[in-house]
Amino acid sequence: MSLVLKNVSKTFVGKLVVDNISFTMNKPSVFGLLGTNGAGKTTTIRMLLGIIKKDSGDITWKEKTVDRKNVNFGYLPEERGIYPKTKIIDQLMYFAELKGMKKEEAFASINKWAKELKVEEYLQMPAEKLSKGNQQKIQFMTAIIHNPELVVLDEPFSGLDPVNTEILKNIIIDLVKNGKYVIMSAHQMATIEEFCSDILILNKGKTVLEGNLKQIKEEYPANRVEIDVKQNIDNYIKELDLEIENVTNNNYTIKINEEDRAHKLLNKLISEGIKVDKFEIKKPTLNDIFIEKVGE
After folding, report:
1. Predicted confidence band at 1 (pLDDT cuts at 50, 70, 90)?
2. Which residue ranges make up each domain of the chain?
3. The pLDDT of residue 69 is above 80
4. Domain 3-218 has CATH 3.90.1150.10
5. Is 217 exposed, middle or buried (0-12, 13-18, 19+ CB in 10 A)?
């Protein structure tokens, strides 16, 4: 057992912003910390990294109380934290040395990550000359340059195009393979669903859902079916009083409240000689679950 938060609370100016939350990370993985704006995510992150003090509860890393001396962590905040007028290489060396790295070690790490993130050509440029996406990649480098054990990523894919998003995704997967503990906070539920084995959803500082994502989804009944056909099937869907959620090029997503009705539609299509290229009954997405829990 490596990272444990137990009954942690924090109050600011008489307002309880984190209310008795608990979770654990027992092995290298990606943990999803979710919530609406103002739910208490950033405060939780800052407490578990020892940046601010908790009011009550326990936060331990490898069975030791967390402070900035005994946790080798990397933190990518949502806000930009790089200097616009300073050369990228100088900033990265500065941050590396703050983490206790020697110059030779820091330079080798910078070159390694610059190559992986495809930002080598920008190292001699000031940050203000870089696009938002490339600035994000540089900021990501500052979080991992010193080979931390615990990595906290707050909106890591902000500003990235699909190509650079894929690069960053592969690096995060490799971090876990190399024994890192990663906590990720993001508003893109599909991204969290792709990465995270366990999640915690906060609403107004309170835990509204926590646990293994796969097990959580198993508790929900199927609520939609995806059907891919070669022709318009709107009439068949209306006959069974089903609702089309989305349709593009005859690829239908249809809302259901019981699986039998989806199978009735499939049988109807087959009996009418309509070729069905895809038929998939789906559980609610994490986005559906998130809206159910905090949508009010």
Report:
1. low
2. 3-218, 224-294
3. no
4. no
5. middle
